[in-house]
Amino acid sequence: MSSTPVIDVERLNVRYGDFHAVKDLSFQVRRGELYALLGTNGAGKTSTLETVEGHRPATSGTVRVFGRDPRDRGSVRPRTGIMLQESGFSPDLTVRESIRLVGGLTRRTDRVERLLGVVGLEHKADTRVSRLSGGEKRRLDFATAVYGTPELIFLDEPTTGLDIQSRDDLWDAVDRLREDGSTVVLTTHYLEEAQQRADRIGLMHQGVFHREGTVSELTRTLPATIRFSLPLSAPEPPPPAVGEGEGRFLIETPGLQKDLHVLLDWARDHAVELRDLQAGPTRLDDVFRAIGEE
Ligand SMILES: Nc1ncnc2c1ncn2[C@@H]1O[C@H](COP(=O)(O)OP(=O)(O)OP(=O)(O)O)[C@@H](O)[C@H]1O
């Protein structure tokens, strides 16, 4: 990985009149990374991304993409692919024409047939955009964003509206782009996708980073959990298990393996059946839920 960041944001502020949407935000995205910008509703993700994509001027602060001002479209746009939340295709164009048109605007080269294959739209090549389903439109969005394997790809909620198979196909395509060296910036409300794929995550809340780092850096600040139920006739389980009512118990622990051992030994010694046993490390969902509590 080169040490020069692909994206360099320094003390970015975005204001809408009196409303301060993004507050002194700084982050970098390194070459080859998959960086996920996540956050609560209204956190400022879109405002930040629109600035980085060159669609919106910063109120203050500096944003550099490939070392340039992203509004310098002539130098930045040909190296960038953008999949927005809502596509702007002309409904009268066919799928093939849409890919060709958007591809041409980027001044990159690619084969339309190859892209149709990547997104599984070969059989819809001559269908008008107005006749596509929501999921098919989303796949067309992706095809145009990755036309010519751009160095930097923005994926804004890329899998919303896609069925499981199409999601898996899209992520396989992203994996191949990354093998070819592309850098990816992702926003999504599907946290498990970010948890599985992101090298680093910027978790926004009310215009600032609540946390930033790798998944393990984000999740290790919260304890792992063990959940189980006991029949009403069972004895009290050992601490640190806490009753949650109706025979359900919760253990929050920084030492998952040790406390699980203690619990299983206790259950065996007392000949008790642990029902609905679930044990696992902290997930990104838990970090999200904790935002409001801190
Ligand atoms: N054009 C605008 N004028 C005034 N306020 C705006 C404008 N655009 C966004 N905002 C406000 O700025 C805040 C951040 O909005 P933004 O769209 O960046 O958030 P987000 O993190 O993308 O949210 P979501 O996950 O809900 O899409 C919100 O409170 C929003 O209401």
TrEMBL record:
User: Where's it found, cell-wise?
Assistant: Cell membrane
Classification via SMART domains: AAA (SM00382)
Query: What PROSITE patterns does this protein's entry cite?
Result: ABC_TRANSPORTER_1 (PS00211), ABC_TRANSPORTER_2 (PS50893)
Name the Gene Ontology molecular function terms of this record.
ATP binding
**This chain belongs to which protein, by name?**
ABC transporter ATP-binding protein
The record ties this protein, via InterPro entries, to: AAA+_ATPase, ABC_transporter-like_ATP-bd, ABC_transporter-like_CS, ABC_transporter_ATP-binding, P-loop_NTPase
Q: Which Pfam families match?
A: ABC_tran
Q: How does it sit in the membrane?
A: Peripheral membrane protein
Q: Does the keyword Signal apply?
A: no
Every ABC transporter domain range: 7-231
Q: Which PANTHER family match?
A: ABC TRANSPORTER ATP-BINDING PROTEIN (PTHR42711:SF17)
Annotated keywords: Antibiotic resistance, ATP-binding, Nucleotide-binding, Transport
What SUPFAM superfamilies does its record include?
A: P-loop containing nucleoside triphosphate hydrolases
